[in-house]
Amino acid sequence: MQKNVGTTDKRVRTAFGAVLGIVSLGTLGGVVPLPELAAPVFGIAALLMLGTAATGTCGLYALLGVDTCPASAGGSR
């Protein structure tokens, strides 16, 4: 897959993934007062955000035709 996630998008995804991961762990530890079902949901969402930030590709972006990567279409990404 071609990279379709730009630098700013990666930073936002990393920050959002980290927050979701902390909330997930906090829910498991009983610190965050959310239902127990929220912990795996937030955990999976955190892994998806961090994974797409690390790889620079987003499957949903590819399906929708979105590209936040500033590289030119003909150049390498």
From TrEMBL:
This is Inner membrane protein YgaP-like transmembrane domain-containing protein. Keywords: Membrane, Transmembrane, Transmembrane helix. Residues 1-71 form the Inner membrane protein YgaP-like transmembrane domain. The chain crosses the membrane at residues 12-32, 38-64. Pfam families: YgaP-like_TM. The keyword Transmembrane helix applies.
